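Lab notebook, bench 4. The sequencing result for the construct came back, and we need a structural model before the next group meeting so we can plan mutations. Quick request posted to the team channel:

Model the 3D structure of this chain.
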Amino acid sequence: MATTHLICVLKITAMPWGTALAISESEQHIFRKAQSYGLMSHAVDGMNVVEVESAATQYCQRIRKGGGPCLLECNTYRFRGHSMFDTQLYRESDEVEAWKSKGPIMKLQRWLEVNGKLSSAELKLIEDHVAEEINLSVSFAECSEIEDISDLYLGVYAESGS
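Done. Here's the predicted structure in token form:
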């Protein structure tokens, strides 16, 4: 099979919203579908940065040794709607709040502290620095001139002749 000679990690980010997999698919776990094609694959907690990094590293090492392509299914949860108009009637606010405590940033912060990588004081310094950078960026944007409408598409598409 030609796909066995590919050199890639296919990362799928699976969220439990959109078209319900239970309705549209006979197999709801994407990684199992990949296994049926002979690909090395498994699912990880996509909300756990350390677990995702570890699995991706293992797959990259396997591929570099000629092991063929791999599929990594990262199961995640989206905290916000698809757009500002999404009323999110398909889920309860309690559910979203419960998932926020399992969010990737919270999990990574806990892991860093528990494993002695960063202290809570160091994490606080990082948070303060990021907040300051965000505030400076917002201030810069608010004080900047509004771009001319003719510049709207600059840098979006390749210019002719390039």
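Strands lie at 9-14, 40-45, 70-75.
Will bring this to the meeting.
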